[in-house]
Amino acid sequence: MNKISIIGTGSVGSTIAYSLAIMGMASEIVMIDINSEKALGEALDIRQGTPFCSPCSIYAGSYVDAEDSDIVILTSGIARKPGQSRLELAQTNVNITKSIIPEITRHAPNATYIIVSNPVDILTYTFHKFSDLPENRIIGSGTILDTARLRARLSEYYNISQSNVHAYVFGEHGDSSFIPWSVANISNVPILECDKLITTPGIEKPKLDFVDIEQYVRKSGGRVIARKGATFYAVSISVCHICKCLLGGVDTTMTVSSMMHGEYGIDDVCLSTLNLVGDDGIRGKVNVPLTDEEVAKLRLSADTLKDVIKNLEI
Fold this sequence. Notes:
The chain is α/β, with parallel strands linked by helices. The mean pLDDT is 93. It has helices spanning 11-23, 36-47, 90-107, 120-130, 144-158, 194-197, 210-228, 233-248, 292-310, and strands at residues 3-7, 28-32, 57-60, 71-74, 112-115, 138-140, 165-166, 185-186, 189-190, 252-261, 267-278, 281-285. It is 40% helix and 18% strand. The protein is built from nine helices and twelve strands. The protein has a six-stranded parallel beta sheet with strand order 3-2-1-4-5-6, sandwiched between helices. The chain has a three-stranded antiparallel beta sheet with strand order 7-8-9, with helices on one face. Strands 10-11-12 form a three-stranded antiparallel beta sheet. Helix 1 (11-23) runs parallel beside helix 2 (36-47), helix 1 packs across helix 8 and helix 5 crosses helix 7 (210-228). The protein has two domains: 3-140, 3-Layer(aba) Sandwich (Rossmann fold); 144-310, Alpha-Beta Complex (L-2-Hydroxyisocaproate Dehydrogenase, Chain A, domain 2), CATH 3.90.110.10.
């Protein structure tokens, strides 16, 4: 019996609820939104399809209904507009998050919280500073989506299953993110050697352009927003993956945003590196060996976020 509450029933929150129901991951899903009619409509629409899924109770509710939640997912806030950076949303969504924190933590003090709203690293930091929850139970979705985009792109290059691609995006979920290519591999073949070591008869592979791939990953969200107005499918699947790992009982590594305490020389900021996630939230960090250049990029990403935090009221 797993109970998951979702705050915010816009495109992302509603798609997460739908995906959770399809996957049969929760026996109870609570949808909470300041627009109660929207929440009621979304819950009703999903609920009427559940006879063909695993049994699940899905309903619109208030913070009180989140009591005894195993997981609370925050998707509330102002959505990013075409041409707008995630960091430009900062103060508005910080204020919204600060207003939500005491209300939800009062009723669901033992839940693990997944922060999805943008700018996700800033809001994860806000959650750490403004709530009394243990650090391990505050998880920012971070660059798990960027990492999924990267793996999807590399799998296209090599015409190979995404599950064979092991590569990550570190840093801010935004413009200062980067790919530590030194640890990227496909089935244990270092990415720098894949062109000569992975051969598929009859298939010509384009030359791997690291700069192009990094730009592709970094700009994917903006491209989707420009074309269809919002991103919600890929991020929803990514958040459901986090939920699956929280409920599965076996630790899994993933790039989610968490508080840094001196790792790679970075302190007092939330960004994405490789974390161990299990049934107690973030169980620890996997400090993969980075090159000096990659450490410098990670520190630059941290400084970018700290510069924004300095100018915010948190």
